[in-house]
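Request: When convenient, would you put together a sequence paired with its structure tokens?
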Amino acid sequence: MLSVKFRLKTQFFFSLSIETNQKGSLHCYTCYVTTSWEDCDRNRTIELCPEEDNEVCVTMKVDKWDDNNKPMTEYVKHCGVASYCSDKECEESGLKCTIHCCNQDLCNTSFTISTDIILVIVISCLQTVLY
């Protein structure tokens, strides 16, 4: 009985989070700095994503050269579409980008392993143990 209740709660949680974001209500942290992730987090704001950029929250680090040919790094968080999650465009522009995308409200909190991934792993392990 415990495993059935757990499965139903799990399925409800995932379907609820997917439905929430499909309704156009995604919120993401937004910031742009050239100093550090810490400064980005200190200066971040919360944005209700516009309809055209409402698929994912993006966290991106861009290594590039400034106008004086000195290396610089941009730390960026914003709303976006799934195509932003590929570094193909960066590579074509000669930039080095590290990009992380997620699709839940305020999920772009830090540039570490996503809690979404951890949650999926934990749930998979629990289901294996319980069945």
